[in-house]
Amino acid sequence: MRALTLAAGVSCVALAAAAETPVLTVLTYDSFTSEWGPGPAVEKAFEATCGCDLQFVAAGDGAALLARLQLEGADSAADVVLGLDTGLTAAAAATGLFAPHGQPAATALPVAYDDPLFLPYDWGWFAFVHDRAKLPAPPKNFSELAESDLKIVIQDPRSSTPGLGLLLWVKAAHGDQAAAIWQGLADNVLTVTPGWSEAYGLFLEGEADMVLSYTTSPAYHRIAEGDDGKDWAPFDEGHYLQVEVAGKLAASDQPELADRFMAFVLTPEFQSAIPQTNWMYPAGAADLPAGFETARPAKSLLMGAEEAQAARDPALAEWQAALAH
Amino acid sequence: MASGAGALGAALLLLVAAPIGAVAWHAGGLALSAADWAALRFTLVQAAWSAGLSVALAVPVARALARRSFAGRRLLILLMGAPFLLPVIVAVMGLVVLFGRNGAVNGMLAVLGLPAVSVYGLQGVVLAHVFLNLPLATRMILQGWQAIPAERFRLAQSLSFAPAQVMRHLEWPMLREVVPGALATVFAICLTSFAVALILGGGPGATTLELAIYQAVRFDFDLGHAAGLALVQALVGGAAALVAWGAARVAGFGAGLDRAAGVQGPGGWRRLGDGAVLVAAALFLLAPMAAVLLRGLPGLAEMPGAVWPALGRSVAVALVSTGVAVAAALTLALAVARGGSRWLDLAAALPLATSGLVLGTGLFLIVQPFVPPARLALPVTVAVNAALSLPFAYRLILPQARSLQADYGRLAASLGLGGWAGLRLVTLPRLRRPLGFAAGLAAALSMGDLGVIALFAGEAEATLPLVVQRLQGAYRMQAAAGASVLLVATALALFAVFDGWGRHAET
Fold it and tell me: Hey, of A23, A131, A134, A198, which one would you mutate to test binding to chain B, going by the most B CBs within 10 A of its CB?
């Protein structure tokens, strides 16, 4: 009996201690929190200094994050949202749920990006990835791709952020000619998948010659699998950027902890976890692992948040008109 | 019993309607647009083709299985059921290995100097849906065959019926009873198709209602539109169910003595024909499964530790959902067999045509003001899986619940056999086979179903299908393929255990 009382007392103390540890809740996408994503390393590094409990809540991918945030509104239990991309920031800002992060702009981006609400934590260039042996001379731009007999797999912009990125890429590179580019590409598109993983899986299965992915995809095969056979095709129009951002929620009940986390995002402790877990470029100072980068696109494309928001619907209509047969 | 069934039916209708209502209420209304008609048209066309072909092909396969006995027949029946239990994306990859640009079929065509066939387009969508649903249709129709009392076949034999006469007097009335339900079930499953239609559809021309719902939620952030589309989807599914079941006729074979069939089918070319049908069906269903297995085996060694607790959660979720689904389906089926009202029939069918995304989003909206959604991830998954597998269980149990009522209902009533005694002495022994099959199906479906958990789960609540999806999202296709094999093997094992219990009734 006494032992039981003692045990109860001890667990009360433990509970009280746990209750005093403030909890920072970060809403992010699935692959960030998984054991092979950046989540575990980031959690460990932040908890070592913050005296807090960092908890991730996962919700699908970037687009699902925004949908979830809109469902929850100001009632969201999250303090920080991590994983929106630049195609979504205008819609995210329009919710009015975000507070300024107060951090200096990220330094390691290939373009200037300074947004008071959204702080980049990683980024990458979209690119078509192919097998070096099967396709030694890949097309050098969208027009060459359209004229070729090559088959590509892309993602649906309605359900996937890379799919939306491709729409904006073609629009940013070709403006009024975007619809004509899509008309030309229509017979090259083998199929359209709901998300990145199905498209990449079809490509690895040998179904398509090229897949829409990132310039960093070959690095995964090179570093994690010791396979140097994949490469990305440099396009002379330039490559569209995906910049992934973090934002602090105005309704957070831990505003100071949230601020500390935003300051932590661009430190080497956070940034060094990015390349080999998220397979993206770090947005702050961090060493790139050997073999991560073999070449860089000569030119980077990125629309402003408002511009991207305005381009979405007409670009989707052009895409649908060209590809619906 | 009747009031219990009424409450259950009402709860099911609520589970379908409340999330749509919650989403509409959040958005402040319902909306539809002109482009939705194209999505509705494509959805109906592909679902009609898929259901028609699945059932048309299932009839000869089920007949061959019913009237031939051969070594390994039970194993073949079990394995041929497997495609229905595959996670959709795994099934698609298996089909692509066979029918894709680089697939075995096109390889053979090239050797023969024939032009390549493309798996991308309406034909690919229908092919995948037939692959996924032929097993279910076959089993539903096979059950019908096995439910014809052996005495009727013996009588036919002693009267020297020709095969055509057996067809007319025994098989046709049975098909009239079973086929409409099978058609409606496959049609409703294909109505909500999303990933198959998109990946094999080849582009935005293959936009289904479910994809339009994705667009409304994720691209346009227009929840009113999503709710409107979900309502249309549910109405079409409900209408299809009503039409099909209006066309069904009770066969009225009367009771038998449960003797082993022991009747061989006709010989000659019909025997060869049955053999050819079985070989073709087994090839079509098992070759992609073998491809899935071959891709996955090397990945088994690469699976991360997170797979094992996720497997445990998935099995637990599956077992609880199965208990709930089968108990509810039995209650509803008995009530309808005893002359309960037709709306129970509708309530038991509607979950099939429900949009997974709207269901998840609506439940999220309902739960979120009261409890952090992650805390309810597993209970919500159990409830949704139970609701989604209930229509199958109900469809499987109902025909034999009807025969039970017709053949033994008056005797049981005159003996005053009701309540538990009736359940133990009459209902369970007579319905053991469909109950076992239904439980196996419910368990396997709950294992494989991603359902709504993706919206709710944090890191600590992930089920095995969610882990597979997360692995795929992080380049780990090998490990994902390995985990998929584990998933399918577990689902098939659960199915085999329950189904085996049901088949114990056979002598």
Answer: A198
